[in-house]
Amino acid sequence: MTNYLGMHIIAEFYECSVRRISDNEFILQSISQALEIAQVNIVGKKIHRFKPQGLTGVYLLSQSHFSFHSWPEYRYMAVDMFTCGEAVYPDKAVKYLRKALRSKRYEIKVLKRGKI
């Protein structure tokens, strides 16, 4: 069996709830909850709010990173989450976000990183 240092998930959430994807505070609360579910440690973050709408941000994790970008006008959000270690659950975080945003269509790609 091959071992890897980490898991990289790229998620694209389409046809999200207009109300939820347009609510910056809801998005940030959902991300915080997702990262808690993933059992990761946040060591820093930077969020930028676009005018008139949309967010982009990156969370630095002791296990790597989580980044996102929202386009409320398209009801779309992109998520990138790279984690290392065995006691983290990035797949559960992404699943939570999909449900929280009420995404009707989504694509998730999982890459195993750092083959050892």
Structure, described:
The chain starts with a strand and ends with a strand. Helices cover 26% and strands 47% of the residues. The radius of gyration is 14 Å and the shape is globular. It is α+β, with helices and mostly antiparallel strands. It has helices at residues 18-21, 24-38, 90-100; strands at 4-14, 42-49, 55-61, 64-71, 76-84, 105-115. The protein has a single domain, classed as S-adenosylmethionine decarboxylase (4-Layer Sandwich), CATH 3.60.90. It has a 6-stranded antiparallel beta sheet with strand order 2-3-4-5-1-6, covered by helices on one side. The chain has 3 helices and 6 strands, in the order E-H-H-E-E-E-E-H-E.
Compact description:
The chain has 116 residues and is α+β, with helices and mostly antiparallel strands. 26% of the residues lie in helices and 47% in strands.
Just give the CATH class.
Alpha Beta
Which strand-content bin applies to the residues? over 45%
Q: Output the CATH homologous superfamily.
A: S-adenosylmethionine decarboxylase
Q: Using the coordinates shown, work out and report the CATH topology.
A: S-adenosylmethionine decarboxylase
User: SSE order in H/E notation?
Assistant: EHHEEEEHE
In angstroms, what is the radius of gyration?
14 Å
The stretches of 5 or more residues where confidence is low (pLDDT under 50) are none
Distance N terminus to C terminus? Answer: 10 Å
Give the count of helical stretches: 3
Strand element count: 6
Biggest sheet strand order reads 2-3-4-5-1-6
Fraction of helical residues: 25-40%
Oligomer: single chain
Do you know the CATH architecture?
A: 4-Layer Sandwich
